[in-house]
Design brief:
The structure is a homodimer. Chain A has a domain at about 175-310: Rossmann fold (3-Layer(aba) Sandwich), CATH 3.40.50.2300. Chain A is built from 13 helices and 12 strands. The first copy, chain A, has helices at about 5-10, 20-30, 30-40, 45-60, 65-75, 90-100, 120-130, 145-155, 175-190, 205-220, 240-250, 265-280, 310-330, and strands at about 80-85, 110-115, 135-140, 160-165, 170-175, 195-200, 230-235, 260-265, 290, 305-310, 335-340, 345. The first copy, chain A, binds a DNA duplex (16 and 16 nucleotides) through helix 3 and helix 5.
DNA sequence: ATGAAAGCGCTAACAT
DNA sequence: ATGTTAGCGCTTTCAT
């Protein structure tokens, strides 16, 4: 055997560089342009050449270079989705709604996470915009000036989601958290609860939780009530924290007991519910409980928690639909506003009407 | 004031197209090349020009075009992360581990979701690879032939995560699910349980759950035991399903009662635990329970569930570290294997030793 | 320390 | 139905 020949023939390894259209073109004997057309299903190509090209591409294992394609066509089928967190259970649901819609289009979601930090948001946004996406879906209406400027200047559809209490740069889809807080307060007042405690996250930058709280206290005030006590947490397992905070706040008010606990999310509310049940507290007789968000798993708890469905997947779907429409038709009007109605669930921890005397 | 001058100066609207380096170059009177150097902090640039450029860029609101940059430099700071699901709580944790590491580098994770469907995985992978990422982190060792071929041909570091029971294309990081199943079986056997039920997802393509099951039954067999009954679910709230399945399997075996239930994840196990407690079943006296995954919130349940920590964030971190190292040093050896040890937690639902007679 | 030229891998626009 | 040409907005390389 001739080692030389061998090393040329059998051991021949194509240079380890990604394949290009040109490689497919040469392998199939079809011009680059036609190869491009086949691979994108654009323009008329005869069955024969089409097959030749497809065959060659498959054989070589060619994967088109979207970077080059995007640069040449100045079309990028990416939608930047910017959210505060993934570990929250709420944002994965929004993502699901978004994907449900985008999966039917050419568009693809790319996620950036801000950890509720405005400066992180600014950075993530800058990174994302530098890929020149076709649209942006971003959580919340509060952003740094620089972020707002970037979004406004990007010249692409921007949908701010989750919250509708404030001014949007372009489109917005969400619920009014202030109103959600008011509605819950109203239900609690109507049920005759008087000594109300609030339990939430120590997170000044969670604007939606803040707005719910504001709406809540506002409505209480109109009924001549105010929050009797409050307790905040940060970090750790929310379920455990819910238990701990509940114990703390109940013990602190033992002499003049609370009769309702409003939690800023369902996870801590669930912890509170488990605490109450473990300690033989009658819910909702002695004390009523309510959370916020309607996370799926509360259905499996010993008692169904009162909560409000935050319409997360609907929000995701609506936002994605707006982007898809605007991308498809660049002359479509901007500034869409979709305000969804969160659904109040009384569950089994909030009475529907006053306790009879 | 001169209106003409005003409308030229203040009212002047730049054409609505994204800004380019050239715009910054013209605005600052510095060559495009030098502008590029300033913006990337590369090469020597005098303080004076540097400031001129930075000023102009800021003023215009210039956002670099990474598409063009990536094409010219053939460097893309993206890491494709391909996972089956986001709603699972497990993958967001892996993502967190990945981000923890990548945030210290130039690299950025881009997520693709497969919904446990091989053909979806193939498609997502193709999409991702067409952006020419610097590396791939992909869940599992089982992929279609085409997917494996793409990964092998991509010429970039590939880390397969979560599972180590099988052959990797390049690097792998995870735990041995087969071994995890064996260990749990061993603990159950040693505790003296005999009539064991299995409850899991109806998901033939969740290879990791399958391997745990195989390891589990294998070890039982060695001890002369076998699964007494099993029950599967799909869709719906896992906590609710856990309750329902538990009721079903317990009632079906009322005449010869089960004394242990092994669940394929902690969420259904939690539902089972709540069911048992609601119905006055003594856990772990009458019946022992164990799940898998160590989700954070089980700490808040009335009884701590026996489970196994699946080391998710550690897996994410290790995988990201491998990618980061290989990207930084392309001559680094490939094929890393990191097998992490899942931690068995007995909690309060699995006895540590035999019940005395 | 700065600039000029060439080209990354595609696609738009125009031939043919 | 297919091919040719000229960029897309950057960075690389080589001058100066």
């Amino acid at each position: 055997m001739e080692p030389m020949a061998m090393s040329q023939d059998q051991d021949f390894t194509p240079p380890k560089r990604p394949l290009t259209l040109r490689d497919v073109s040469e392998a199939s004997g079809v011009s680059e342009m036609t190869v491009s057309r086949v691979l994108r299903n654009r323009g008329d190509v005869s069955e024969t050449t089409r097959n030749k090209v497809l065959e060659a591409a498959r054989e070589l294992g060619y994967v088109p270079n979207k970077i080059a394609g995007a640069l040449a066509s100045s079309r990028v089928n990416l939608v930047a989705v910017i959210i505060p967190s993934l570990s929250n259970m709420v944002f994965p649901e929004v993502m699901t709604g978004i994907s449900d819609i985008l999966d039917e289009t050419e568009l693809q979601a790319v996620v950036g996470v801000t950890h509720y930090k405005p400066e992180r948001e600014e950075k993530v946004l800058y990174q994302m915009l530098s890929w020149r996406p076709s649209g942006v879906i971003i959580a919340g209406l509060e952003h740094t000036e620089a972020s707002k400027a970037m979004l406004a200047a990007a010249g692409i559809p921007v949908v701010e989601i989750m919250d509708t209490d404030g001014d949007a740069i372009d489109a917005k889809v969400g619920i009014s958290h202030r109103r959600a807080g008011r509605q819950m307060a109203q239900a609690i007042i109507e049920a005759g609860y008087k000594r109300i405690g609030f339990l939430g996250t120590k997170m000044p930058l969670d604007h939606r939780a803040r707005k719910r709280f504001e709406g809540f206290t506002e409505t209480l005030a109109k009924a001549g009530l105010e929050i009797a006590d409050q307790e905040f947490y940060s970090g750790g397992s929310a379920l455990v924290k819910g238990r701990e905070m509940t114990q703390t706040i109940l013990e602190r008010n033992a002499d003049e007991p609370l009769d309702f606990l409003y939690y800023s999310n369902d996870m801590i509310a669930s912890g509170g519910l488990l605490y109450c049940l473990d300690n033989g507290i009658d819910v909702p007789g002695d004390i009523g409980l309510a959370g916020f968000n309607g996370i799926e798993f509360i259905d499996g708890l010993p008692k169904k928690l009162a909560t409000m469905k935050a319409m997360r997947s609907e929000i995701g779907r609506a936002a994605a639909q707006i982007i898809a429409k605007r991308v498809a038709d660049s002359s479509a009007p901007r500034g869409e506003e979709i305000v969804l109605e969160p659904e109040l669930k009384f569950g089994e921890t909030l009475r529907r009407k006053k306790k009879p005397f």
